[in-house]
Amino acid sequence: MDIIFVHEVRIDTLIGVYEWERQAPQTLQLDLEIGLPQTVACQTDNINDTIDYGKVVERLRQTLAEQHFLLLEALAEHIAQLILSEFGAPWVRISVAKIGLLRGVKRVGVCIERGKRL
Fold it and tell me: Which cellular component terms (GO) are annotated to the entry (predicted)?
């Protein structure tokens, strides 16, 4: 399986269980690994034969501006399902982290995998 990766995407959104977390947008860091449904782009050199990672990032920015979550787990699941359904990926691995939320901790987050590796 060929995999596109997009690492260290920074997106500001409202998220958190506690009221103080939802007072202002927090910066999240996303790391995405997206399985490709086919490998023909290697031969054709055509963007239409792959998943356009620019469009994926644009779509994520849009959805996180419109929708807010309490848990990182729910946000990661939403992103995974979006990529699987809207972009036709057979498999994804999504890591979502809050940056500098806890004193002395650089990042705290969750990593999920959905779909099947071909």
Answer: cytoplasm
For the chain, list the domains and their CATH numbers.
Answer: 3-115 (3.30.1130.10)
* Of the candidates 34, 112, 105, 107, the residue with the CA atom closest to the CA atom of residue 73: 112
For residue range 50-70, list pLDDT tens digits in order: 999 999 999 999 999 999 999
DSSP state of 18: S
C-alpha distances (whole Å) from 97 to each of 11, 28, 38, 106 are 10, 6, 29, 9
| Cβ-proximal residues to 44 (8 Å cutoff; 6+ apart), any chain | none
Catalytic residues: 98
